[in-house]
User: Fold this.
Amino acid sequence: MQVPFSSLSEHLEWDSIPMTWLLFKKHKLAVPQRGEWRMLLMDMRMKVPEVTGAVLASSEVIKMLSALQQPAMLITDYVAENFVLGSGWAFMGGLPELEGSANERFAGLQRFRFMTFLDSGRVTNISCIEVRPGLIAFVRVEELSGRLNRTFWGIVDKEAEMVEDSGMSIDHRGCDMCYSSKGKCEARLCEDEQYFADLWNSRMVLKLGLQPRWKTLEFFTHWFSGTWTIPVADLEPVKVLTTCYRAGAEFESALLAVVQDEVLGVHPPRSSFRTVKYVREAVKYFVDLEEGDPPLLGADLLSDFDSEGAQSLSGQEVLSPALPKNVCGICGAKFKRNYEAKRHRETVHEKLRENKCSFCGRTFSQKGHLNEHIRVTHRENNVHSCHVCGKKFGVKSKMTRHVATVHENRRTFKCEMCNQWYKEKAYLKRHMLSQHGAALVS
Assistant:
């Protein structure tokens, strides 16, 4: 029987901010920023029995829900009087690095949203992730006690806002004493209730004495840390060990991957080659030199590293002797004319800015940019001003684009797969490749 998605929470009434947030009706890129309890890495390690895993693997719904059971980086985006909204990044296949080594199973990041609210002294969290265009998977977790959670999961139609499929389980936390002596903790037999009473009391302090701090990710650390048993019908249950990090090697590695992914989502591919992702390629080059392996990069390219050490270098492209002159040997960008490729290398990779303004000393990569700067800033000849904010432009088309994208918030490039809109075609291309694995057909 279908039920409205809004029935999952009193705050999800029609056209509410939380509803819009959880159903991804408004796209939002949110690069994490450090702050007190603003970011949290939640590392979930699952132990699935063989028979149980085989049964779960045949369930299409469980496959879609698996994205919400991966390690995740969480940030708080918005705190209201009675709820908090946040963004998350699920690490598909596990964290990018495990015990200091690259995780070969890591398959990229997937964005999700979460909402947390307090009801009758108990916290509820709802997480949602878009698994297919127009189809949202959700997991709603309610705390029942220091030991028990009620988990309600399902699939919701984004347009109809109706739950298509659903299920429920009661998950219990294992105590440290049982695990240290027997390796497992049975909820029906364990008598170590004091441990969970203390845990419940510490969470109540956050909820009652330190509001609104309970709404932040600090509460998640007290709530989810530990070993949980999740029943699966009549099959052997699944065990989940959850560890929360605010700092450390795992946290920094995960944060690096998230920031890199968000930067690539904001900037078009050609202008975002200088990302953290390619630092590892450069580091590998020097490690190979120390270990005596043959170098993959030409020695003449070492000068291309800037002060940040973030440079896109592809060994395969550099070593190709038949590379045309109108193709950049560093990032692979193609140009119609040879001099355009040369100018690209000098201004983008070598960062040459030899055109200096005699009025203010500002430097530019191209003489045409310098001439436009002098005409607009210092001489104010043939200037086009924005009627909203007064910003000046040397070309009318730039001013028109500024008004449309900044003040009128126009998004003229639409993704036909998920109906997201972008103001630049390059942004849409990047979205298509990263989110749908498809190239944009011009």
